[in-house]
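ok so for the tutorial part 2 we go from a plain amino acid sequence to predicted structure tokens. step 1 is just haveing the sequence, like this:
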Amino acid sequence: MDMIFSDMEKIAVKANYFMERTKVIQGNIANADTPLYKPKELVFKTILEENIKLKTTDPRHISPESKEQYEMKVVDDGYVYGYDGNKVNLEHELAKLAESSIMYKTLMELMKKESAKFSYVITGR
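step 2 — the prediction. this is what the tokens look like for a chain of 125 residues:
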């Protein structure tokens, strides 16, 4: 049963990342006038459950499960964009906000299509 919903779970993890990233970017934009503020970024990474490299000698071998997670980090590119030591580049943050919003909406559409497959299988229409 887990295999049936595995694609939906992967989509949900990535959609959750973009939703959280949007919140972080909105916080950066809201603090564009805060003195000495450094913008934050949410970084998405895939981590293998086990640190041991498994040798796959046959193409039918199953790769180890990976765990996807994200972490917050402070971005410091060395530039000061505000006269008060603020490091938020508003244009850059707005571009990231648009990208994050588009990715989230795309993943939600993909989720709708995946759920429509289940509806088709159940009802036959």
